[in-house]
Target: DinB family protein
Amino acid sequence: MRAVLTPILLLFAVITTSAQSKLPYYEIPKEANKFTSGTVISRMIDGLGFRYYWATEGLTEKDLEYKPSAEAKTTKETIDHVLSLSQVIKNAALKVSHKEAKSGMTFVEKRKATLENLKQASDILRSSDDVSQFKIIFGEKEFPLWNAINGPIADAIWHAGQLASFRRASGNPINSKINHFTGTVRK
Model:
């Protein structure tokens, strides 16, 4: 009995650990049933999350150090910037002042934090019919959520495209089975 039970318990532990470490945005979540200001901005964040997930999935140390020119930022520095942008987006949804990201995080930790920040913000905003209550706050300065659309959300989408381009240039192209239009992955 013990010989049978041990492999089953081990398999259960592996499956449980795998499920716990699953990151958001492997695919875009199902769309909302209705259009509201909250569901639209949520969907924009979900699109960003999906693009960032795949632009950063499977990056190597070589990819992280890549930069297209001497003056440009490395992939790793661009990831740091997107993490900061994701915190601005999340903090706006939480209605708190923006604080800079913790330093000393590994790439894996930064990627996870970025995706979780985006998911948290998306979930909060999706459930709101009136997004005018949300503000981007930098200390004493407050900006309407409009600024999130043309500011950190658009900027992070731009940088997700850069990350995809950088990884292609460093010899590690993005997964060819992803479909940005549908937000799905071909099996």
About this structure: The chain has six helices and four strands. The chain has a mean pLDDT of 90. The beta strands are 135-138, 141-144, 178-179, 184-185.
